[in-house]
Amino acid sequence: MINLSQQSLEIPRVPDSLLRPKTYVGQLLILGNGFDRQCGLESSYADFYNDRYPSDVIDKILKIGTDYDISSVGSIYRFNIWDYILVYYFKFKSNESPYEQWSSIEDIIEMVVDDQLSQKIFRRHDDLHPFNLFSDLRARIMATDDLSEDDIGTFVEKHPSVSNKHSESNYLYFLEHLSCILKNNYPDIIYQLNQNDDSNYSIRKMFLSELKKFESAFACYLVEELKKAPEDKDNYFAKSRDLIEQLIGTDLQLDDNDQLANSILSFNYTKPFSWYRATAETIYCLRNVHGALNKEKPAESEIIFGIDSQDINHISETANKTNNAEGRTGFTKTFRTLSLNASRLEHNIFDYEIQIIKVYGHSLDEGDYSYFQSIFDAVDLYGSNVAIYFYYSAYADSDHANDELEYDYFKKVAHLFEEYGSTIDNPNHGKNLLHKLILEDRIHIKKIDSNILDQNWFDYRDRVVEEHI
Based on CB atoms within 10 Å of each CB, which residue in 182, 184, 298, 342 is the most buried? Predict the structure, then answer.
């Protein structure tokens, strides 16, 4: 007979990890076009330009104004005033190659909206009497007389400093073609201009409408490129899955009780992660900040090109009748993002406290600084312990070229933090922000091999906050 009162009973010990509450680690991945390109998608503006404007099409586009027949190139829904501006820009800008210069369509949009085309294309640097595209275009549309290169007329400011007749003639040629495109494809434009007190409103509105059609053409191009992806392990979607898992797992140090919440802020119009359920479930929140493709109805995709709004206050202080903050606002990414009808996600990238930020494939152009500023402010980059990683891949043909790319990327990272530092209330904090991040080992710039998966990812996979996208 067992005497229970004398028996020693051992109570199993509960592991400390189970006694401690779970902690959630928020990780934000910021992806740019370099991600899609690294995975084999020809999604750059240079790729689009090459596809859309073969040499015979360029010749036709440049003749649109003279033969008044835009249908000779394509319907107004395919080719429009932005095609003419872009082709003309690269055709006459000092023989500069469009393939090298097309770093971002937003640069050219900004030139148009801020009325800088005359200076950028036609080398006009007379600040007192510049050519003003929108007011000149309005006057040319309303004029009844024929254009003469010898008689600039009422719609271009005459000034003794105008000495480059070649530049002047090219501008008149350019202006005449734009007015022909508008009058022949928007027959009510004259009525609208007569009814509207703001001399530029109707034209700016039309330019924005045309920009939306141009965006639709780019969306159709991307969908066609996606359809070309081969059905094998090396296709774009498989490469995207491997690369995103590599980015998630690299430089990830989790404690036993940590749960990982991954969010993606993508500057691309694609979302290949949703094609693989196992990968999609590892992503808590995905935001395509500039809209996403509609693969079933490409022409109805809601994607945007735009300009940054960070300088809008400065512009409003120096505004004139053709270059003003109000006219610029309608073209900004911030304003246009508000108009997107895409379904809003229930989750937010800041639902879990972000402790890690990783950037890959982003050009770090100034046009997107507002986004980085908002993120850095939200995580209190100066006062927190947030770590930030900038990853890049070597893709050039030679070691020397890759070294140059690496050096250029380092400079862009430094410039990003210099600009962000200038927005911090405490100027001393702003000046030493980058040094502080370096001393605290919170900033890293690293080359990543997208062909080698980090084994940490598989160790952490069962501790991911899941949300199928």
Answer: 182
